Amino acid sequence: MTDRRGKKKVTLKLHEPSAQEVLMAGNFRDGTETTRPFRKCKDGTWRTTLRLDPGIHEYRIIVSGIGCPEPGPSARRAGGSDVFNCVVWV
pLDDT of 7-44, one tens digit each? Predict the structure, then answer.
């Protein structure tokens, strides 16, 4: 669903019940990298919801201080130094 400013609500989820902290680092604001914390749910799933402009956005998941790929099939783009970013199309 798109809001009146043209932004779309996107929820990222990760099942990592033993994690102490989960962050998302991405280029969601005018190409500037920002980090955003996930919120832990009772079932061990971590979630964060963003409102994104149309386009391609790259992000990385950081679990308890360690960068890791998002599980499951998702698009990836080389981010340099053998790092692959996850990609979301809005």
Answer: 899 898 889 999 999 998 887 666 667 888 999 999 99
CB 56 within 8 A of CB 10: no
Which residues are within 8 A (CB) of 49 and not within 5 positions of it... i.e. 6 or more apart?
9, 10, 11, 12
Strands, E assignment, 16-82: 22-29, 32-37, 39-40, 45-52, 56-63, 66-68, 75-80
CB atoms within 10 A of CB 36: 15
User: Which among 1, 13, 2 is positioned nearest to 59, based on CA atoms?
Assistant: 13
Largest CA distance in the chain: 39
What domains lie within the chain, and their CATH numbers? 8-89 (2.60.40.10)
Give pTM, 2 decimals: 0.72
